[in-house]
Amino acid sequence: MPEGPSIILMKESLQPFVGQIVTEASGNAKFEKEPLIGQTLLEIRTFGKQTYLVFERMAVRIHLLMFGSYSVDEQTKPDKSLRLSLIFPTGGMYFYTCSVKPAELEALSAIDWEADVLSNQWSPEKAKQKLKADPEMIVCDALMDQNIFSGVGNIIKNEVLFRIRVHPESLTGKLPAKKLNELITEARNYSFDFLEWKREFTLKKHWLVHTRSTCPACGQKLIKKQTGKGKRRSFYCEKDQKLYL
């Protein structure tokens, strides 16, 4: 599943179409495409792993899910996987194997934009309040909770927890104040590092524990385990990452 930084890069790829009028709209997403024709793409907004194409009378929400993809100016996959195609005077954007849904413009105002770790509106204080409100939540679930850390995915989760030396099955309510602050700070810091490395095509070279087999700090074999409610893969060192219970 693409994480927040990858969605920012997608937004940048689509940005040249802002200000242009839709001339054609098609695809097998289950909503009427005809109303999009003739509308101007006013802006593109991202919220974590979601993208909103904002038009004059409606918005379209794109979520790439686990295996979604997109292309610009060139259709690259069979029609059966094409959820939405939007053609503009200078080219087109295509979305495949993903969730595409219409959204009311009023619904955008209900989104908690302060939860997006890559947003200028990001509020670490609000994140702390949400974490303290559920002290029994384990930290691997907390980091993956899109209501708290919108845009954080499994890679960021694993790397952040190694950075701050916290075991993924620790309880948020048992973290010392310093570690809680580090959790919040590094969720944002690593997301921006991820974005920079993704632009450089060097992301995987910087992974310390994600998909790795040995700890870069002590050389001990890393634990690979499905953790949390979502049973997502965690990679961690039992020696260097403390379990707070």
What is the subunit organization of this protein?
single chain
What is the averaged pLDDT score?
Answer: 96
What structural category characterises the helix and strand content? alpha+beta
CATH topology of the largest domain: Helicase, Ruva Protein, domain 3
How many helices does DSSP assign?
Answer: 6
Strand order, sheet with most strands: 1-6-7-5
Strand composition percent = 15-25%
Shape: elongated
Overall tally of structural domains: 2
SSE order in H/E notation?
HEEEEEEEEHHHHHEE
Low-confidence stretches: none
What this model shows, in words?
The model has no long low-confidence stretch (mean pLDDT 96). A hairpin with a 3-residue loop joins strand 3 and strand 4 (59-63). With 245 residues, the protein is α+β, with helices and mostly antiparallel strands. The longest helix is centred in the C-terminal third of the chain and has 24 residues, at 177-200. The chain has helices at 4-14, 105-108, 124-132, 139-144, 154-163, 177-200, and strands at residues 24-26, 41-47, 50-55, 59-63, 69-72, 82-88, 91-96, 99-103, 223-227, 232-236. The two termini are 30 Å apart. It folds into 2 domains: 4-108, N-terminal domain of MutM-like DNA repair proteins; 113-236, Helicase, Ruva Protein, domain 3, CATH 1.10.8.50. The chain has a 4-stranded antiparallel beta sheet, covered by helices on one side. A 4-stranded antiparallel beta sheet has the order 2-3-4-8.
